[in-house]
């Protein structure tokens, strides 16, 4: 894919956004909408700010993740206007923009103040963004119904968005390969993080989320947030959940690698990978995402039975009695786009058997989702199982052996097509 092709797709994307936003404005009785990019708040009691990545609807239009104090004005029947905050400043550099075709679609202006730009002929105006940044802006601030309509504009990705997500997958996989090599070479979690950043050429602060890099038992903490600087004496497993942001769009990929000599754990990784690929094959228009989640529990049950980790119970019984939830406690995935956990996924609450599920809709063409089953050895979840009424069905010695490996998660990013799915992650591995 050439840069020129991608930039031409961006013009189509912006034209589609204009149509979607004009419809949302009309349906909610507004003539124009002012979107604040936001600004990084300062840490309490400090003169240093948090790192900034921008407000979702602003990124949806511009992809400019690092532009603080910028404003985008969207009007019905008019060209959008973008104000970029570009003060004369010798303390900080102002981000510069390359000349690209999208600037023909959006009028770009510069301003040296953080305040709301002067607007004329706004009609009925809405303003959306971080309330702390809206200040004395005119118009209605963050009206609920319009916000819901704006979030809905992000559910069905344009062709441009899917190509950006595909690029973010390719870039992230370079990092995952480097991370795996660093792990097998005996690196620490910190060293693996550096290898990932070097391969992706993206600072962790600019990545879509803090990378999860867990060795051994750390892989059993779902959002493990630390990096040990010392490698374990016996490196048994690596779980890395890490992505890349490209033109505002996020990849979110997880891979698990067994250490040398970890045959039993390696067989489980291979088994869960097979389960994960079958779940990815379920993705197509009309499929209820909740059904994919429930099928994942059936797959985990089959894996527990096949390995002898749990015996004397049917797969259905394991699911019904909550055995699989002790090994797989989270949801099967979520929407993906400008945000890692993209918006509008839960018009209805998740079911009782999947309380942490972030997506409860039927799949439609243009949606992009993650598929990420897991199988973990988390003491706080397994202890009640091993001490309760079902304890006789659990192979305690096997669990004790595997506990030091932490767990397994395998995650791909999948776009729903008109007839099936496009696995953006697996295609990038070829």
TrEMBL record:
Residues 164-417 form the Peptidase M24 domain. Its EC number is 3.4.13.9. SUPFAM superfamilies: Creatinase/aminopeptidase. This is Xaa-Pro dipeptidase. GO terms for molecular function: aminopeptidase activity; metal ion binding; metalloexopeptidase activity; phosphoric triester hydrolase activity; proline dipeptidase activity. Its cofactor is Mn(2+). Binds 2 manganese ions per subunit. One of its GO terms (biological process) is proteolysis. NCBIfam families: PRK13607.1. The lineage of its organism: Bacteria, Pseudomonadati, Pseudomonadota, Gammaproteobacteria, Pseudomonadales. Keywords: Dipeptidase, Hydrolase, Manganese, Metal-binding, Metalloprotease, Protease. Residues 12-148 form the Xaa-Pro dipeptidase N-terminal domain. Mn(2+) 1 binds at residues 252, 334, 372, 411. InterPro entries: Creatin/AminoP/Spt16_N, Creatinase/aminopeptidase-like, PepQ_N, Pept_M24, Peptidase_M24B_aminopep-P_CS, X-Pro_dipept-like, X_Pro_dipept.
């Amino acid at each position: 894919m050439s840069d020129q092709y991608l930039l031409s797709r961006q013009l189509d994307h912006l034209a589609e956004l204009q149509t979607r936003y004009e419809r949302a404005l009309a349906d909610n009785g507004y003539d124009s909408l002012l979107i604040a990019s936001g600004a990084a708040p300062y840490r309490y009691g400090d003169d240093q700010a948090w790192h900034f990545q921008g407000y979702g609807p602003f990124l949806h239009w511009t992809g400019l993740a690092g532009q603080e104090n910028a404003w985008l004005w969207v009007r019905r029947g008019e060209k959008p206007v973008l104000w970029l905050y570009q003060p004369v400043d010798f303390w900080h550099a102002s981000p510069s923009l390359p000349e690209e075709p999208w600037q023909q679609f959006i009028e770009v202006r510069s301003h040296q103040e953080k305040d709301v730009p002067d607007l004329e002929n706004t009609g009925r105006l809405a303003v959306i963004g971080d309330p702390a940044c809206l200040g004395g802006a005119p118009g209605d601030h963050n009206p609920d119904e319009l916000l819901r309509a704006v979030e809905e504009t992000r559910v069905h990705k344009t062709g441009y968005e899917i190509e950006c997500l595909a690029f973010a997958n390719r870039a992230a996989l370079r990092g995952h390969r480097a991370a795996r090599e660093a792990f097998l070479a005996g690196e620490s979690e910190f060293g693996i993080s550096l290898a990932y950043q070097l391969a992706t050429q993206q600072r962790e602060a600019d990545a879509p989320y803090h990378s999860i890099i867990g060795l051994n038992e750390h892989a059993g903490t779902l959002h493990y947030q630390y990096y040990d600087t010392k490698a374990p004496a016996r490196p048994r497993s690596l779980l890395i959940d890490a992505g890349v942001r490209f033109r505002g769009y996020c990849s979110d990929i997880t891979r698990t690698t067994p250490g040398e000599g970890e045959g039993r754990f390696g067989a489980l990784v291979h088994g869960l990978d097979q389960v994960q690929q079958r779940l990815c094959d379920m993705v197509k228009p009309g499929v209820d995402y909740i059904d994919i989640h429930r099928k994942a529990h059936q797959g985990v049950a089959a894996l527990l039975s096949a390995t002898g980790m749990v015996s004397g119970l049917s797969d259905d019984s394991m699911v019904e009695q909550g055995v699989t939830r002790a090994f797989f406690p989270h949801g099967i995935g979520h929407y993906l786009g400008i945000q890692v956990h993209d918006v509008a996924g839960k018009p209805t609450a998740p079911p009782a058997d999947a309380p942490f599920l972030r997506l409860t809709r039927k799949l439609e063409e243009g949606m992009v989702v993650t598929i990420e089953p897991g199988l973990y050895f988390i003491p706080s979840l397994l202890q009640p199982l091993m001490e309760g009424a079902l304890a006789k069905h659990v192979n305690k010695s096997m669990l004790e052996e595997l506990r030091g490996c932490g767990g397994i998660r395998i995650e791909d990013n999948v776009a729903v097509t008109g007839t099936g799915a496009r696995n953006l992650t697996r295609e990038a591995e070829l």
